[in-house]
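Quick start: read one record
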Amino acid sequence: MARLWKAVGPKMTSHTKLSVIYDGQCPFCTAYVKMVRLRDAVGVVELIDARGDHPILGTIREQGFDLDEGMVVAMDGEFHHGDAAMTRLAAMTTRSGLFNRLVRLGFGNRTVSKLLYPPLVLGRKLTLRLLGRRPIDAP
C-alpha cells in the first residue's frame, strides 16, 4: 500500500529539489519517467535508478518503502510512495501533450490513482519476470 511520509508541504518554488526513484530495468517505469514533462513544470529533476547505489536509497528503505511495490518521489524532505507518488507527479506535470493530459486525468485524483496503481504494479512484476529480471532487493 502506498504511503506518504510527512505531510505535503508548501508549493514548489524554483528551489524545490525533486527526485524520482524508479526501477531502471522496468521498461514501463523507464518510459514513464522519460515521457512525463516534469522538467518543463519544475525545472531540475533527478532520476534515480532504484537498482543503483544512490545514498537516498538507504533512507527510502529505512522509512519502510518497498521499491518493488512502487516508485518514490522525494521532494524537499518529503517522500511519496506508490499511488501517492503518481498523484504527486500528476499534479506537477504540464498539461501539454496527450500523455501528460492522460496522466493528470488518471492519477491527478488520489482515489482514482489508488484504483489504477495496483494493476500497474502487477503488470510491472509480470513483465520483469517474463524478461528474466529479479526484484529490486533480491540477492
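The helical segments are 27-35, 38-42, 56-62, 83-92, 98-107, 110-130.
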